[in-house]
Design brief:
The protein has about 170 residues and is α+β, with helices and mostly antiparallel strands. It contains four helices and seven strands, in the order βααβββαβαββ. About 30% of the residues lie in helices and about 35% in strands. The longest helix is centred in the first third of the chain and has 14 residues.
Length: about 170
């Protein structure tokens, strides 16, 4: 059947969102956390996003959460209030089905209060770099060996997209 819906995340989606994130933390260098996020921390993250009106969306395929995306504070200085950081995660079981594009598109629709979106991507995450490029993000800079995970240094590319000229 493969019925896909992109919708606002609900608190009941937090366990599935966290499972998808923790898979990336444990199995890839795409997320630079080294320890899985606890479910309590995931609920706090969701509650903080909701309270601050930063959107979280899920991609649901045949009733199961198959991916998620959110906007977050880029930095904690007021001068960055018109910039939001994009996060997109698709379950390893549902990759290459266009869910990332659908999620980024929905994030952009909900981001009218922002001037710029920024994605912070490890260079070995070529799927994410391709996704953001297809969605109109432009590579702005790459920091060589900016981070370290699994005993190796990781290059980080910042990609941006201006979505609102106000």
């Amino acid at each position: 059947m493969n019925r896909t819906i992109i919708r606002r995340a609900e608190r009941d989606d937090v366990p599935a969102i966290n499972t998808i994130l923790n898979y990336a933390i444990v199995n890839t260098n795409y997320n630079l956390n080294e320890k899985p996020r606890s479910l309590n921390d995931a609920y706090k993250w969701y509650d903080d996003h909701t309270a601050e009106d930063y959107p979280v969306f899920v991609a649901e395929v045949d009733g199961a959460v198959a991916g998620w995306a959110s906007l977050s504070h880029f930095r904690a200085y007021s001068g960055y209030d018109t910039t939001a950081e994009v996060s997109v995660y698709v379950s390893h079981n549902f990759r290459h089905r266009g869910l990332g594009t659908l999620l980024v598109t929905e994030l952009e629709r909900s981001a009218k209060r922002f001037h710029m979106l920024i994605a912070v991507i490890t260079d070995n995450n070529t799927a994410s770099i391709s996704l953001h490029s297809r969605c109109g993000f432009v590579p702005m800079c790459t920091f060589r060996e900016l981070a370290r995970k699994n005993n190796e240094y990781v290059d980080i590319t910042f990609m941006t997209k201006i979505i609102n000229r106000k």
